[in-house]
Amino acid sequence: MPLTPQQLAQLMEAAQKATETAYAPFSNFHVGAAILTHDGQLFTGCNVENSSFGLTNCAERTAIFSAVAAGALSAQHDLVAVAVVHREGAICSPCGACRQVIFEFGPAAVVIYRAHSGEIAQTLARDLLPEGFRLR
Ligand code: THU
After folding, report:
1. Is 131 one of the annotated active-site residues of the chain?
2. pTM recorded for the entire structure
3. 115: which of 6, 27, 85, 121 fits an S-S bond (Cβ 3.0–4.6 Å)?
4. Which spans in 1-136 are helix H?
5. Per DSSP, what are the bridge partners of residue 84?
């Protein structure tokens, strides 16, 4: 289902706010994410880098994992929307790992991000990750 303008604005604002706590001393690329769950709850996350670079967690996964830990995401269609923003508005589309994690809880979720064109895109998770992996 398409998001209302109010939902979109709320997600973008929350994602922007989440950039403020990003821990990104290595890339200096501060990212925030906000997600909306099926029961109307909003969770946020930021990227968390590590001296061992490969351990970095993206903002989208931080938000999703927080929601799972809070008991708000457990089934295939629980995730309604994900917004991701860079602190200064740079192009920032979800990485492949995040696409797979988004797909787990919401193949029909709307993903909002600044696309390579420079426009803010709203794309369904299943279109960002065709044939996403699924065990169940
Ligand atoms: N990053 C995110 O948090 N989300 C994205 O959608 C793309 C990349 C982070 C990971 C890393 O901390 C930094 O941005 C640079 O890759």
Report:
1. no
2. 0.97
3. 121
4. 5-18, 59-69, 96-105, 125-128
5. 33
